[in-house]
Fold each of these.
Amino acid sequence: MLLLNPRRTRTNMKLLQLVWIFLLTLCGQSADIKIQVKEDGEAILDCSFGTNIKNEPFAWKKDVDQSNEDVFWYSGGDTDPGPEFRGRVFHFPDQLQFGNASIKITKAKTSDSGTYTCYHATVQKEIKSTISLTVGPILKDRSDEKIEGASPEPSVTNLEETQTSALLRCVVRGASPKPEVVWMDSDGTTLRGDESKATKTTGNKYDTVLRITVTKTDNYTCVATQKEINHQINNTIFVRLNGGASKPNAKEINETKDGVLLQCVVQDPSPQTKVFWKDSTGQDVRSEEQKTENSIILWATVTMTDYYRCVTTEGKKDDELYDEIRVKITDGSWTKLLIGIVVGVVLTVAVGVIAWCCCKKKLEVQHQREARKDII
């Protein structure tokens, strides 16, 4: 059997690829499996040989416009991903001994959609798997894709501020198709403001302006969405009204030997800002505070499953703001309970066996005594 090295036999492989494409076309090869994933997600393409393939060559290719794009090549421990898949395609080395030639594609792109073929990379190119992959687009910032007409980052401005409110403006320039522009608060709630005004400019592009009046301290985000090109981009502005507390940002950091470590961050606090961690009953949780030039960070370690709130205040009950998270402590309680039950059952059985043995012994002694009396 002839093994082909991709680095030394590229020219011969190109000729063989043409023959292979012709055979696939002639035979009407179609995908056996259909897989759908979302953009930026992961896709596992299955392929099995049924025997140990640690020392066997196999490859994956993708059908593109009557040609084949290299996806992944394996031969005797060496791997060679295709140019479009470098850093995104992986195989399963520990599964090769079981004949598993599957691959995983990460950070999936819409351009990854197509038909993939796994085959034994010999001259005969025995096909082992054919899979149709569809990668569905998602709304995300596509500025780095240089799409014509994609909305730039919105310009956000605090036009006017009083002790109780602030007038915010968002401007999106040169977007095509016309974007949908909205304001959101830090909870992701869409806010109702003035009707957006879109002005058509040269090249069928639009300049859009949206204003809104807000009445509480918070982070406010202007979001521009162009569903036609799956592009969404935003910009955030922080508003702290006079006498208002800064809204905290709470999150779970990691598990430690003592419990779960929580972090709360308050941006641009005033000198009067106070920050607390509280449990679901309103009781204060012991914490450690760290102050920086522009923020307050509060750390707390908790040991019980519960809802925990990070609360900020400027000294008045009405200006309290909070962010809440749920923490689940995996302390092995069920395991301990199961062990207790098993130990209890074992002890019960053991006591029962001992009692039965004692009773049996007593009965044997009694029978022996009665037998002696009969003899006498």
Amino acid sequence: MDSIFFLGTYSLFTFFFALSLQILPSFSYTSFVFGDSLVDGGNNNYLFTLSKADAPPYGIDFTPSGGQPTGRFTNGRTISDIVGEAIGAQSYPPPYLAPNAAAYSIHTGINYASGASGILDETGTLFIGRLPLKEQINNFEKTREYIVSVMGVTNTTNLLKNAIFSITIGSNDVINYFQRPMIPFIGSNNVSPTMFQDFLVSNLTLQLEQLYVFGARKFVVVGIGPLGCIPFIRAINLIPSGKCSGEVNALVQGYNQKLQSKLDQMNKDLRPNAVFVYANSYDIFRDIILNYHKYGFEDNEGPCCGGYFPPFVCYKGRDVNSSSYLCSDRKKYVFWDAYHPTEAANIVVANQLMNGDKSKSYPMNIWELYNFDFN
């Protein structure tokens, strides 16, 4: 009896939900978010993994949760949260693994990102559970099947054509590459930086092409930031104050250049049926680090939470004495923990990606992409 009632209720919900789509305002914002811990909206909360942000003080400045952790690896909002909010999204895309997330896929979108994940399936093995990019896109395929079941093929095509697909990934691949003497990585320690860059770009390209096959048309592909400057890399390599790891940043810059060239080629090959925006997070974040006072920051090197030395754990115990170090003013720090930016830094990056010139987002910024009409 209960199951029959549930099915009947579900059918009515589906009917009225589909009906409501016919009167959706033209400015509705749907986004599908893929990536790693920089944009994870809580998927890792549902995994058996060492990569979690489900305990205080993570989320301490995230207003919708009342300052409680949501699985975001920062003190507040991620870049994708901030962008969606600015464009007019009424809520954040829920994590794919959350119960009933599919029901939000049409009006808000879904977040598939997973902390510790990478472009390569092997990346993040030490953390046990995570959703590599390939698996994230397989999950999107399941979401698409759900949308088709509710809206039909034609309406699904139109929805996906106008939705924003953002991909923020690659940082963990690079970090793992430089840890390969300690971690067996892609079968060999003799992979040159050039080979590794090409390997990442070719694998990412395959996943972007798969999203295109599934109906994605508006892409924001975020380059890797200056990893040589994050507290974790600086600490394990004993980089002195005021310096960054040139070796790490050189590999990242080479990868970013190859990625941008590939996206340029994809824009030419698929024009006018798709737009691939390259988000230049490297230069934006590098400028924040170099000119941090200009942006209102007071510390551009150390993490606000967790300390500057291993094990870099950011947590809040039952009493103050058992908690890790936490700075007094999060808005004054560029880095939240040893790996991730603060919300304040994310705001700066998001604003430049939305409103900046072609040196920040190429060939257009996110506002222009959102308003882009394929017709």
